Amino acid sequence: MNAKRMPGVAGWFVCLALGAGLSQATITVDGYFRLGEDDPGAAAGQPGQNPTRETSSLTALSIVGAGAPTNTAASSTAAIQHAGSTLAMRFDGASYYVTNGVLNTATNDYGIEAWFRPDLVTNWNQGIVANGHHVGNNSHCLYLIKETIYGLHASGWVSSGVKAVTGVWYHVAFVVTNGIGCVYVNGTLCATQNVAGIGNVPASNFSIGAEANGANKLRGEIDEVRIFHFAPGAFRDSDLLYRVTPAASTLYTRTVLAADPVAYYRLNEGEGARAFDIATNPAPSAQQGAQTGFYRKNNVRSLLPLVVTNGPCQDIYPGLEAGNTAPCFNGTGGQLAGADTDNVIASLPGIATDYAIEGWVCNARSNNILSITGYVWGRGTNAAFDALGIGGTWGGPPLVGSLGKLFAFNSSGEGFVGTTLLSLNTWYHVAFVRSGTTVSIYLNGKLENSGTMSATAGSSDFVFGFRPDFGWTFKGALDEIAVYNRVLSADEIRAHYVRATRFEGTTILLR
Fold first, then answer.
1. 175 with 230: CB under 8 angstroms?
2. CA-based, 20 to 30 A from 370: which of 28, 203, 310, 475?
3. What is the C-alpha to C-alpha distance for residues 495 and 185, in angstroms, rounded to an integer?
């Protein structure tokens, strides 16, 4: 059961969560080693069987060295959820590893993935999984260099930037697609690097728990190892064993999609570094189109997740839709965003002068702290922008009387103020609409105010969590943001808000 808020109300009530399936694109699995489940009679606490079997029974890996890894029941929660894991294998980092010949000879369009939990992360380089030996540029590897997770394509080392912690499970994957090496950690695309033309056909062995030749053994546990290849361009994030399950479709969601937004970001926790656009890509298996945005912690204009963040920050605000949560923005920096400021950025080419943005806003900063409480979102650059904000202690023109109220503002200094004082930590449906030189703000389905703002943003850049010039950060939560390449009518906005409070069947659906 999940407690959810009614729109514009600070109280709570209970609703039922919904589940959703996720289809997968086509990959060819060359080997899948569950490390226990496919070995007859394997049980927690017993030595791993020699050989340990592959799911299809076509391949097995032999134990090399003195002793054997131990089967454990301490599987990752995510591995249990996504792969049905019941057993893993613990390696001692000194005596043994499991191996066989290379399992594919691809130099492009391939992937390796596994779960692992290190027992040691400092001053020790450790091989997690290797297909081929990196000496001679003949390998694809998942590697732990001291505490940092890496992918290796021949001589092309790609750092995830993620530092592993002892005793913590991680799902890691290294995928090379169209010559780009991609490192994933817990379903998040952490880093990419051009590795096209580097290296030779993988040679030597396929090994788990060490490099291909047995060097640099891992001390810790490993589970659910797969190696695969795919047709050029066919890979999708959802092909990985650790994959994001989108929130259930609801009446509100379907209503927004029917209005034909250019982009619709549900901003679900657990998405990883990308804010998926379900308007561009309604099929879950295709959720990585051109309209995808990025969660970031920085103050640099870039379409890259410069700091990996699973939703903007760790605080969790319950979202309004059933079975979902909304990400929280930390609002650090106040007047000027800093290197750790939570934000989302997206590029939406082709947006006309007339456009609209709608979404759900929950402000968590008192309105008497800063001159401007925060900017929720904006379109444009520091040279020319439109923006929606919440007023603070400064009340000079054009923001006279804006304390705690929504306001519109642009880079030319034009703007106007809404009429409603927003309550702290309370969800509101908000819409910002530009029609020529007229801009309108709506709150919970009703027009707050309109004004003339002659300068237009004229940009494909959209930011959420501060102003487009990085000013006046937002502290709170955002959810269900949709961007339209047209004017939304007052009737449409009202209808969208009403849909968020309707019941569907026996389940309370707030979105």
1. no
2. 310
3. 40
Angle at 497 between CA 356 and CA 390, to 5 degrees: 60
Domain with CATH 2.60.120.200 in the chain: 28-239, 251-508
Question: Hey, what CATH topology would domain 28-239 get?
Answer: Jelly Rolls (2.60.120)
Q: 108 and 179 in contact (C-beta within 8 Å)?
A: yes
Task: Show the beta-strand stretches assigned E in 34-73.
Answer: 52-53, 60-65, 70-72
- pLDDT higher at 5 or 394: 394
Q: Report the SS3 class of residue 284.
A: helix
User: Cα separation of 268 and 407, whole Å?
Assistant: 26
E strand or H helix that includes residue 227: strand 219-229
Q: How far apart are the C-alpha atoms of 421 and 429, rounded to whole Å?
A: 14
Cα 74 from Cα 79, distance rounded (Å): 10
Cis previous bond, 246, omega within 30: no
For 193, other C-beta atoms within 10 Å of its C-beta total 17
Mean residue pLDDT of the chain comes to: 80
Report CA 50 to chain centroid distance, whole Å: 39
Query: 3-state class of 226 per DSSP?
Result: strand
Return d(Cα 228, Cα 289) in angstroms, integer: 23
Query: Averaged over 249-269, what is the pLDDT?
Result: 81
Chain centroid to CA 195: 24
Alpha-carbon span 196 to 108, nearest angstrom:
8
DSSP assignments along 327-367, one per residue: EEEE-TTTTB--TT-EEEEEE-TT--SSEEEEEEEEE-S-T
Q: How many residues does the chain have?
A: 511
Using CA atoms of 206, 209, 215, 217 in order, give the dihedral in degrees to the nearest 10: 180
* Residues contacting 301, CB < 8 A, separation 6+: 345, 381, 461
Q: What is the pLDDT of residue 505?
A: 34
User: How far is it, in rounded angstroms, from Cα 489 to Cα 496?
Assistant: 11
- For 348-380, the pLDDT digits (tens) are 888 899 999 999 998 999 999 999 999 999 999
Quick one: what percent of the chain has pLDDT higher than 70? 79
pLDDT digits (tens, 9 = 90+) for 407-448: 999 999 999 999 999 999 888 999 999 999 999 999 999 999
Q: In whole angstroms, how far apart are CA 215 and each of 49, 134, 194, 211, 345? A: 21, 11, 27, 5, 42
DSSP-based three-state secondary structure for 224:
strand
- Report angle CA 441, 443, 446 to the nearest 5 degrees: 90
DSSP helix/strand/coil, 44: coil
> Domain 251-508 is in which class?
mainly beta
How many helical (H) and strand (E) elements, i.e. helices and strands, does the chain have? 3, 36
Whole-number Å distance between alpha carbons of 326 and 200: 45
Tell me how far apart the alpha carbons of residues 401 and 14 are, in angstroms, rounded to a whole number. 37
Angle, alpha carbons 223-226-232 (nearest 5°): 155
